[in-house]
Structures are given as structure tokens and as C-alpha cells.
Amino acid sequence: MNIYVGNLDNDVTEETLRSLFARFGEVGKVNLMTDRRGISKGFAFVEMPSQAEGSTAMENLNRTLLLNRTLDISESAPPMSKGARKAKIRPSRPKR
Fold first, then answer.
1. Is residue 9 part of a domain?
2. For residue range 37-80, what is the model confidence (pLDDT) as tens digits?
3. Among positive and negative, which fits the CA dihedral 56, 73, 34, 42?
4. What pTM does this model have?
């Protein structure tokens, strides 16, 4: 299960998130999103192999405080394929 974690404080690290989610089960990958300068963008993705453990973590951690910020946690949508990103859907224009 891939979990979106938003509204993160700039001082949150990948290790902080790993230990937070590990209370609910096995944590696979933690990806803290940063800009080119290495500054946190305020969100991350946490992978948990077990659907049940991931759901429990989301239910228990959503809207809780971490470093004085209220976490916004939800299930992440699966990544789009390259073809889906490149496809441009244009609305049809009425004929004149």
C-alpha cells in the first residue's frame, strides 16, 4: 500500500516517518519529497507491504500532530504510466 503523508514540518526526516509508521507494521520505502536545494516540499510517500497494516496506520495517524503540524494522510493513487501522462485529451469543439 502506498500512503500519502502531507502537511509535514520541514524538520521531518525519512527516518522520523519510518519510525512513526513502523508502530503499525513493516515499512518498505519512505520517499520524502524535496526541491532541488534539498528542502522539504511538505509531503512524502510511505510504502507498507501489508494492506491491513497500511490501513491501520492511516486510520490511527491521520489528523494527528507531528512536530506541531496536523498530518494529512490518505491512500496514494497508483502512478500514471508514461503513455497516460503524454496523452492529451482535448474537449471537442462545436462545429460551426
1. yes
2. 999 999 999 999 999 999 999 999 999 999 999 999 999 987 66
3. negative
4. 0.79
